[in-house]
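Prompt: For my understanding, could you write out one protein's sequence and backbone structure tokens?
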Amino acid sequence: MQKRYLTCCLCIAFQINAKTTNDNFNDIDKIVVVGANPLSQLSDTRSIIGQTQSLDSDALHKLPNRSLAEILRNQLVSVNINDVQNNPFQPDVQYRGFTASPLLGLPQGLSVYLNGTRVNEPFGDTVNWDLVPLEALDNAVLFSTSNPVFGQNTLGGALALNTKNGFTYDDTELNVSVGQYGREEWSIQTAGNQGNWAYYALVNQYQEDGWRDFSPSDVKQLFSTLSYKNGGTLVDVSFLHVDNELLGNGAIPEDLPTFESRSSVYTHPDQTNNELNFVSLNINTDINDSLNLVINLFARENTTASINGDDSDFGACALDNGAITLCEMDDDDEDVDIVDNADSDNEIVDNEDGNDDDSIIPDADDFEIVEFVGYDDLAFSDISSIDPNDVDGTYNTGRAINRSMGATAQLIHEHTLWGQTSTTIYGGGIIKGDISYAADTTFGILENETATDTRTVIPIDGIMDAEARVRLLVDTQSDFLYVSNVSQLTENTTINMALRYNRDHILMNDTLADGEGSLDGDHKFISFNPAIGMDIQFDNNTRFNVSLAQSTRVPSPAELSCADENDPCRLPNGFVADPPLERVVTRTVEVSLSGQLNALAYNATVFASHSLDDIIFQQAGTTSSRGYFINIDKTQRIGAELSASRQFENYSLRGSYNYLAATFESHFTSFSPMNPLGPDREVTPGDTIPGQPAHQFKLAGEYFISDNWLAGVQFIYASKQYYRGDEANENKQIDGYGLVNAYSTYDVTDQWTISVRVDNLLDHEYDTFGTYGEADEVLEDIYPEIDSPYFIGVGHPRMMSINSQFRF
């Protein structure tokens, strides 16, 4: 009761749109309200169902940022980042307690659109931030609430990204950036128009060594748009090609930096390769003065190949015929010594250190015997000369080919209703997905004999775990219809009503097995999601908004294939037969007040999102990637935001605070085998969802030293959070942290600009998330003092970069 009372009392806070200059606010009456939708492509679209935060081209590009995720975190309210992989292109981006991440195993709750095309991957609803051509973006708009018009996965909000074309941008520009830890980036973009035709092209390459050990990245992007404009018709044909290699080596034991450094890694490699080809056609045409037609067609293919080196849950065991093979066994039974002695049921050996204690090779009958791909009924000792006791690592590989294509069309009708202005949007479409997934686990040797070893896993060529092999084909189809009406009830009051129908069909075919125990599945989901919002403008300076919205997300193929508690899988590699998961339904109520007091622009918002059958990942092994998905009856995210900004003659100030209470609202048992208090922890209503800071502060100021010289500083604070795996909130939390970033831009000439940025100016040591693991699996012989189950995602040190921008 006390926790609920405090939650209600704290639901007063502040928010601001990132774009809140005095001029922007005074332009309120000039904005055409058509209702938020992914095909609007209007950076100044005002949403009545929820709020918007927008970043224009200047906000996106005036500083040498490494990735879009960092820009969103630094400039938008309620956006947070968890650096799970410590790679700038692989963060978990969180907004109001919902996540858009490239990693499987997280409850994805944000939809992302690029030029009207949804880019959440079909296989796991994940978002690959490295596939976004940052330099080509013209604007980014973050829509709040569970607006059903944006479709599946819009539980907490939607991010709409729109690119430049030759009619909105007509320069030629060369950007060159260098920075610490081997950062090198260059891009060239050019655009122009003549008559009815226009073009835009971008080539970009980014590479770095990474501040963590063994963590280089290489990002290559090519983007182009050919445009045609004639009267009220605009046609854009865009093509995006991306070829990236990302290494991010994840969490480390919290005590490891004491013996090595914060840049050290636990095991590696952890590599992701993305290759994308994406073509889209957008048509926007005025049929007449009251009718507008928008069409989006796309075809997209993204191939994601992953490599993950990890420690092993396998150990040597003895068969009845005296052969030695590998078995999946308990932790206490691993890593025994081996001799050639077939005269007893259990093999007895002397320890390597020469002591009198004996070690025992366990009998294979007591464990699950490993079957090897292509070697039916053969023991490990029959197919390899390597000592089975040296096999202490796994080399997990996965390859997902995500193909999708689709069409969306919407008709915008401007008319009158009861004598007042009204706009109705009728939309519908179909999106088909074709997914081919393959995964293997190859046995390997973990190089961890001494402290100077790299702790990399060297695969043993051709020796793979048959049970871990996955070959899965998935066909998905999503059909949808939506309608949205915006009508003026009075001169100062506007109402927006929306409804969306979704039908999703997921057909899964296991090419290695049929029937019971296979991954075969046929899943169908139907939903109707309504929303309503009202906007009241009290005067020229004050606006009140209230909305109620519902949205859904269906379980992704990755989640449906990994939902058996009796047979957990290893993400992103292994999947098991699939007990059905329920779709997630989220309802959000949001109230806001925005306005201007003299030169001070402000916005205050409170919201509450209640989710039914939320999907979470249950850890079920010694690593955070082994487990299964389950439905949780109820979760909720209640919060508040407050922000303000003011523009002075030669400087500006802005600040925001947000509060978030993200909680479980039903009883369940968290398996969490590596929890310091033991497994099977009881979660009760009101327990906080891990990985979500309750408080965030963001302050920023900019000062024009002269007409061509700007200096700025940012302060970002995130409060403490619980470790993943501590859903019952029984253990210590990760400390909160504060970061100071500084930057400056100088216009040398009208065509040449130099900028400098320093992130984490004070070189503060901080952590952005935590999980549980078994450090002594890898480090016992090297650092026996390290036995804590706490693993941390370390934040980056001070990093400086310099950018030079030439315009021709």
